[in-house]
Amino acid sequence: MIVKEKVGKWFDHFHTYPEVSWKEVETTAKLAGILTEMGVQNHTFDDVTGVIAEIGEGERIIAVRADIDALWQEVDGIYQANHSCGHDANMSMVLGALSYLQDEKLGSRIRFIFQPAEEKGNGANSMIERGAVDGVSHLFGVHLRPQEEIPFGKVTPAIHHGAAVFLEGKIIGDDAHGARPHQGKNALDPLFAIAQFVKTINFSPYEAYSAKLTKVQAGGESLNIIPGTATFAIDARSQSNSVLNELKVRISEGIQSIAQLYAIEIVLDWSDYTPAAEVSEEAAAIAKEAILETVGEDGFAPAVVTSGSDDFHFYTIHKPELKASMIGIGADLGPGLHHPNMTFNREALDIGARVLASALKKASFLDE
């Protein structure tokens, strides 16, 4: 079976059997089984999902990362695991790149990192803690891109993701009868104040950033009770790590000022921080050469700047000397990433596998 057909077959399997973050047990087993059948040395972990494999020889190590988890979302009225972010495609393209390289002469070892829990924002750290990038000089990633960024047939050498963080808050007051509001502490008034406040945070218009409520829960079935407790969530994003840090400070300070104004307690919990991309010019240049070699000038697209985020960039936060870039594959993907009915042109899978294989091979022959 030719590599392109293998990639399609692998995609069909991963797409049919999605698993959410930290529960990618069968996905891990399938990946390990494929790698073993290919005769590729690999290992899994007793305490976490994910697989690491290697081919080639030598002291130098080049690496590539594929995320393996699916989202949990409503699809046609039913909540289920769903690969609407394309991680099924990412796994398949990385396996395809390995297949293309397996019988090639390489200049170094190439490590394949199949990482869990990207959607939770902390799967990369689990692999870092287990030595995934120890000794690695160059790291590549790959991801399908939505049609509004680049069209099918185009490939970009770098994706400049933004930074993101989530805030979960709880407003703690006292319920009151609808006829006697003075006897309680209304959670809805500070909740509405928070909704208005986040819209007033301003930075330079040359900075890309956003903060918005994404979840609000308050009250029960009784319509004559003013709720004293409410929960909410805020999604905060920026194109730079420094602006996101300042955004967090302003949001926290503003919400606590609202708590004082309404004489109510508000508990805040920041979580799932994902850093902005730190793209290596050298790694991006290698990827550009691979794109030109594989699909030519007509298939080359400039670097993409996106407000989306990816925990791939924790690898460079952990190891600043790591030369990293994520390759973006145009796939006519729509309606968009994370849309429950996302689809794309499957011809993009083989394009991605071949570009990635070329980039990894070129990087393997670089002198330190």
Q: How are the SSEs placed, and which strands pair?
A:
Elements: H1 3-16, H2 25-37, E1 41-43, E2 51-55, E3 61-67, E4 71-75, E5 78-82, H3 87-101, E6 109-115, H4 123-129, E7 136-146, E8 155-156, E9 159-160, E10 163-172, E11 176-177, H5 188-197, E12 209-218, E13 225-226, E14 229-238, H6 241-261, E15 265-274, H7 281-295, E16 304-305, H8 314-318, E17 323-333, H9 347-364
Parallel strand pairs: 3-6, 3-7, 7-17, 9-16
Antiparallel strand pairs: 1-2, 2-6, 4-5, 8-17, 10-14, 10-15, 11-13, 12-14
Helix pairs in contact: 1-3, 3-9, 5-6, 7-9
Protein model, in words:
The chain has 368 residues and is α/β, with parallel strands linked by helices. It has 2 domains: 3-161 and 277-364, Aminopeptidase (3-Layer(aba) Sandwich), CATH 3.40.630.10; 163-273, Alpha-Beta Plaits (2-Layer Sandwich), CATH 3.30.70. 32% of the residues lie in helices and 28% in strands. It is built from 9 helices and 17 strands. The protein has helices spanning 3-16, 25-37, 87-101, 123-129, 188-197, 241-261, 281-295, 314-318, 347-364, and strands at 41-43, 51-55, 61-67, 71-75, 78-82, 109-115, 136-146, 155-156, 159-160, 163-172, 176-177, 209-218, 225-226, 229-238, 265-274, 304-305, 323-333. The strands form 5 sheets. A 7-stranded mixed beta sheet has the order 1-2-6-3-7-17-8, with helices on both faces. It has a 4-stranded antiparallel beta sheet with strand order 12-14-10-15, covered by helices on one side. A hairpin with a 7-residue loop joins strand 1 and strand 2. The longest helix has 21 residues, at 241-261. The radius of gyration is 23 Å and the shape is elongated.
